[in-house]
Amino acid sequence: MKRTLIGVSVAAALAATAGSAFGGAFGIATQSGSGTGNAYAGGAAGAEDASVVWTNPAAMSLLPQGKHFSLVAHVLRPSFKFRDEGSTIPGVLGSGNGGDGGDWALVPNTYFAMSLGNNLSLGVGVNAPFGLKTEYDSGWIGQRIALKSEIKTINVNPSIAYKIAPNVSIGVGLSGQYIEAELTNASALGRATLDADDIGWGFNVGLAVQATPSTRLGLHYRSSIKYELEGDAKFSGAPVANADVRAHLRVPENVSLSFFSAVTPQWDVMADVTWTRWSRIKSIVPTCREVSFAVCGGSGAPLLGATLPTNWKDTWRVSLGANYKHSAAWKFRFGLAYDPTPTNNTDRTARLPDQDRFWVALGAQYTLSGSGRIEVGYAHEFLRDAKVDTRVFGTAFRQRGHFDDRADILTLAYSHSF
Fold first, then answer.
1. Are the C-beta atoms of residues 212 and 238 closer than 8 Å to each other?
2. For residues 254 and 201, is the Cβ–Cβ distance under 8 A?
3. How far, in Å, CA of 346 to CA of 22, rounded?
4. How far, in Å, CA of 140 to CA of 365, rounded?
5. How many Cβ atoms are within 10 Å of 213's Cβ, its own excluded?
6. pLDDT tens digits, 138-153
7. 239-244 long-range Cβ contacts below 8 angstroms, 24+ apart
8. pLDDT of residue 132
9. Domains (ranges, CATH) in the chain?
10. CB 159 within 8 A of CB 60
11. What are residue 155's DSSP bridge partners?
12. CA-CA distance, 2 to 304, in Å (whole number)?
């Protein structure tokens, strides 16, 4: 049963980049206060606030001279409800649909940017680019496959931008990212728990062009990040089976092309297309860090039976948005997006029951009497049914059915310029 835990846990947990809460797979798309209401359309061409440190560092040069600060809180509510459709798992191994696998989550971001003269800008962002939490009722029909799956990340992204021409800027940033995973499932050896973590490094580069006084273009690249996660597998009923484990993972890069235009004094329109190279993740091969009880043949050897195919595919996220400037104080936002999943009906499991997402978003910005702005955004994600047909390791039993998925996002933010 250790092989069940390590294999399923690592494959489900250790794969993420820009994009889910929510976006495809389990990248977290909500990374700014101004973006939620537009479904993150026009992100790489945006110049609303200091969150450009993340979406395109070159756009720091498009902000007004001075210092800019943003503090953002996203309240996320996903829902994953399983409907059985012919599972063959006997009741002695689990019964019931597991309740709602989703729960409330709070995801904060903070950003700071400042100009140094007319051409040079510096900034730093602290955010959570990836995350996931699913947790099902103990004893449910899929407990041998998944109980709790929780992924947390913290990313620090210092950046610099330089205006190489009056209307053209370039930017570059460095990312230091910490990832932590906790995953559990039921086994013949009691409750099985995997804890693993690592720190990875990456970079991002961007180009921002003020094509006309009212139109901007943005191009942004964020690199892949390589991890070597290390941790422990523990079993509540058989501590002798505990082991140290390792898994190599290289998460995919992504590229965004964005457009923004103030078509009238009252209306802005924007669009974005983002490509993510999820096809990097074809399978996960966990290994032992040392000789382990009845699990593998020696240090560095694969965990027997734990190699899992994921066979993810590349995705293209497309979004459209608009702003309406009602007055000097009030701005209203609207957005639509299509965010396809990289997963497939063959390899999908209950740990990550992801499917294609359709965003409908709206928001409002209120400018205070000074240099402060309050932002509120809301998005609802409609998801296709997520089919699963997963074998319980070491048996011929299968969990068959689909998940009814949906997600809601509420964003509150305060930005200040000085």
1. no
2. no
3. 22
4. 44
5. 8
6. 999 999 999 998 888 9
7. 240/293, 241/2, 241/189, 241/292, 241/293, 241/294, 241/295, 243/2, 243/288, 243/289, 243/290, 243/292, 243/293, 243/295, 244/288, 244/289, 244/290, 244/292
8. 83
9. 2-408 (2.40.160.60)
10. yes
11. 127, 177
12. 9
Residues in the chain, total = 418
Q: 252-265: per-residue pLDDT in tens?
A: 899 999 999 999 99
Nearest to 357, CA basis, from 375, 377, 343, 378: 343
Res. 11: pLDDT tops 90: no
DSSP secondary structure letter of residue 32? -
DSSP code of residue 302: B
First to last CA, the chain: 58
Check if the beta carbon of residue 181 is closer than 8 Å to that of residue 195.
yes
Structure token pair of residue 67: 């210092």
236-283-253-257 Cα dihedral, nearest 10 degrees: -110
Instruction: Calculate the alpha carbon distances from 362 to 35, 36, 46, 217, 355 in Å.
Output: 10, 7, 17, 23, 22
pLDDT confidence band for 16 (50 / 70 / 90): very low
Cα–chain center distance at 158: 20
Is residue 22 within 8 Å of residue 407, measured between CB atoms? yes
Q: Would you state the pLDDT for residue 296?
A: 55
Which is nearest to 233 in space by CA: 303, 142, 156?
303
Work out whether the CA dihedral 157, 158, 162, 163 comes out positive or negative. positive
Please enumerate in sequence order all residues whose Cβ is within 8 A of that of 314, keeping only pairs 6 or more positions apart, or say none.
252, 275, 276, 277, 278, 279, 342
